[in-house]
Specification:
alpha+beta, single chain, 2 helices, two-stranded antiparallel sheet
């Protein structure tokens, strides 16, 4: 007899996702643009010198 948990196996993509819980002051949602051999995200100038955390969502 199969366990109920075995039936609810997440897809391969969902199993690679991780849930993050963070506290902060502001949140922006942006698309990363090409910049040479790298990617770039522009942030507001008043964020310069601040600490940020970047989470890739897709």
């Amino acid at each position: 007899m199969h366990n109920e948990k075995e039936k609810a196996v997440p897809s391969e993509e969902a199993s690679r996702k991780v849930k993050f819980e963070i506290y902060g002051e502001e949140m922006l949602e942006k698309e990363v643009k090409m910049s040479g051999n790298s990617g770039r995200v522009y942030l507001p100038p008043d964020w310069v010198g601040r600490h940020v955390k970047i989470i890739r969502t897709d």
